[in-house]
Write a structure and sequence with these properties.
seven-stranded mixed beta sheet; single chain; alpha/beta
Length: 178
């Protein structure tokens, strides 16, 4: 596919749930944009579908927002980068109604700031989503169900086939079920 980031952004804007497998795996227990399941944060439908159809977990468990580092302070009470989802700042009051899919019950969110230099393809997806929707934030969770985060392309394909994901972006390839 010529521009997988733009394609993925359009799918998210259309309400689809996608697996996102790009480059080398992340270090640590969280999805940081290379091994992720992504959804639209602008409503609660994506969050609810992920909890019900994909993650099979309690509906109160929150998901994280990924935002371009340059846009983070407009959406979150955040003074600097948070590339590893270690901070849970308040979501700015005016932003809460625009991204309810990633806002915790206490008005915070476990934010991941994305630096285009460190993660160019993931940043391009978020930027394209922002152009389409006016919201440069995507819902991000680890690419797994009950098993560990996917590590290989074969793992990604197996998890995609066994789950109710709508599509898989595997490198520059788009995989969909018939």
């Amino acid at each position: 596919m010529e521009n997988i980031a733009a394609c993925a952004a359009q799918m998210l804007a259309d309400g689809r749930l996608i697996g996102w497998f790009q480059g080398g795996s992340e270090l640590g227990p969280r999805a940081l944009g290379n091994r992720s399941i992504l959804a639209d944060p602008r409503g609660t439908a994506g969050r609810d579908a992920l909890n019900d159809r994909i993650k099979h977990r309690e509906p109160f468990r929150p998901f994280a927002p990924a935002v371009l580092a340059a846009d983070a302070s407009r959406w979150f009470d955040l003074d600097g980068p948070s590339p590893f989802m270690l901070l849970a700042p308040a979501v700015r009051y005016g932003a809460r109604s625009r991204i309810p899919g990633v806002v915790h019950v206490d008005g915070t969110a476990r934010v991941q700031t994305v630096d285009p230099a460190a993660s160019p393809r993931f940043a391009a997806l978020i930027e394209n989503f922002g152009v389409l929707t006016g919201v440069p934030v995507v819902l991000n969770t680890s690419f797994n169900d009950r098993e560990p985060i996917v590590e290989t392309p074969a793992d990604a394909l197996a998890t995609f086939q066994a789950s109710d994901l709508d599509a898989l972006c595997l490198g520059e390839y788009l995989v969909e079920k018939l």
